[in-house]
Amino acid sequence: MKNENKIQYIYGIADNALILGQRLSELCGHGPNLETDIALTNMALDLLGQTRSYYQYVAELSGEGKTEDDIAFLRTERQYKNVLLVEQPNKHFGYVITRQFLFDIFHLLLLEKLQNSEDERLAAIAKKGIKEVSYHQRFSSDWIKRLGDGTKESHQKVQEAVDDLWTFTDELFHSTEEDQIALDHKIGVDTIELKEKYYQKVKEILEEATLSIPETKWFQKGGKQGIHSEHMGYLLSDLQYMQRTYPNMKW
Amino acid sequence: MTIKLEQHIDPTLVPILEEISDPEIPVLSIMDMGVVRSAILEDNIAKITITPTYSGCPAMDVIGEDITKAFAKENIEAKVSLVLSPAWTTDWITSRGRKALEAYGIAAPLDEEADKEALLGGKKIVKCPQCGSVNTKMISQFGSTACKALFQCNDCLEPFDYFKCLK
Ligand SMILES: [Zn+2]
To answer: What InterPro entries does the database record attribute to this sequence (chain B) (predicted)?
Structure first.
């Protein structure tokens, strides 16, 4: 498998972790209470840690003297390959939890497959990530149940979030050209294979949370091709501000 | 990236490594924490391999620098590298490390099964490091750092950290 193809494949996984990590870190100090604030920023940290492992690998593969920072901070919007779901804004706590829940279920299924990748490095990153993402999934699933089966207001808010974010779930299973190449080389994961399990698991938890499953057949897509929603530009300007303003600055 | 289960640690380097503490839990040396995976001396260069507890553990950069500094004091150049596999587990915390945790006020990790019962089933088995009571409750699955959960003792009412089991 050509390095360039592998790099693009890794972006498809790593950029989800970066962008969701960035979204969660925006909440640092703004959580509804101390415990959830700490939980959300802990999860942000896990995701950024995973991102670093992927980007360090990409930096080595690219062989152009690139660093993980260049990859995180100096790409243009179209070069980020994250799904639309993870870039959606932090509207309210129920929305944050729903976005997290819809991603966590997918993320864990993906890593459980990726740990068998014939690429040793990706397998190791996945194995490490599984332990962390299991906690994330537990946290977001618990909160979905608590909010869904909570007060009238919490139920209504989280139901609206589910209805809204549902349209972004189908993209998780779209296969790009790089996905196919990676799969052919036994490096990548067949995301289509995860789809049935994903919806089954999601529905199970939503039902337990007394939430109804949206019936929409219309889904959004584009992130995987680098065509993002209107929120992405704002997110990136926040994310990239320091490196763009003070090139090569370090902590 | 090589996958080695056993640690290769040159015993002559151990005293230096034992002097370096985990920046987030200063009572614990990086040896007791189990994050040093190998340490060998070649041509007066110490090659040290460490592994993170969690992917995003911000302590790793600091530990790397601390190792370099500690060896420089002994006029030894150190090269530190990071491995992810095999992934760190709380089983690698030494028994001396577990005692140090408890003395510091952090409940040491239970085994996998008991950990699940404590974190998910709400079973009262995590022992308060202050008074020893098991009449405790979980406040939050996530504590002050990624590796810990927040608990409170129902008897002495002190809040405390519980080091989560990681396998
Ligand atoms: Zn107590």
So the answer is: Fe-S_Maturation_MIP18, FSCA_dom_sf, MIP18-like, PaaD-like, Zn_ribbon_PaaD
- Could you tell me if B45 and B112 lie in one domain? no
Q: What is the mean pLDDT of residues A191-219?
A: 96
Q: What angle do CA B132, B134, B139 make, to 5 degrees?
A: 110
DSSP β-ladder status, B45-50 and B77-82? parallel
- Residue B3, in any domain of the structure: no
Which residues on chain B are in Cβ contact (under 8 Å) with A35? 139-140, 142, 150
Which residue segment(s) compose the domain that B112 sits in? 105-163
Measured CA to CA, the distance from residue A93 to residue A84 in angstroms comes to 19
User: A125 touching B, CB under 8 A?
Assistant: yes
DSSP B126-162: PPPTTT----EEEEESS-SSTTEEEEEETTT--EEEE
Give B121-165 pLDDT, tens digit per residue. Answer: 778 899 999 999 999 999 888 887 778 899 999 999 999 999 999
Instruction: Identify which of A36, A39, A125 has the shortest CB distance to residue B84.
Output: A125
Q: Is B87 on the interface with A (CB under 8 A)?
A: yes
Q: In this complex, do A128 and B87 lie within 8 Å of one another by their Cβ atoms? A: yes
CATH code for the structural domain at A3-245: 1.20.1260.10
Number of domains in chain B: 2
B89 φ, ψ (degrees, to nearest 5): -135, 155
CB contact under 8 A, B52 and A49: yes
pTM of the model: 0.89
Give the count of Cβ contacts less than 8 A between chain A and B. Answer: 73
Q: What is the DSSP letter of A209?
A: T
Nearest CA in chain B to A33: B140
Task: Please check the confidence at residue A71 and state whether its pLDDT lies above 60.
Answer: yes
Cα(A235)–Cα(A231) distance, rounded to whole angstroms? 6
How are beta strands B159-163 and B106-107 bridged, if at all? parallel
Structure tokens at A175: 């296969």
Would you give the distance in Å from CA A158 to the centre of its chain? 19
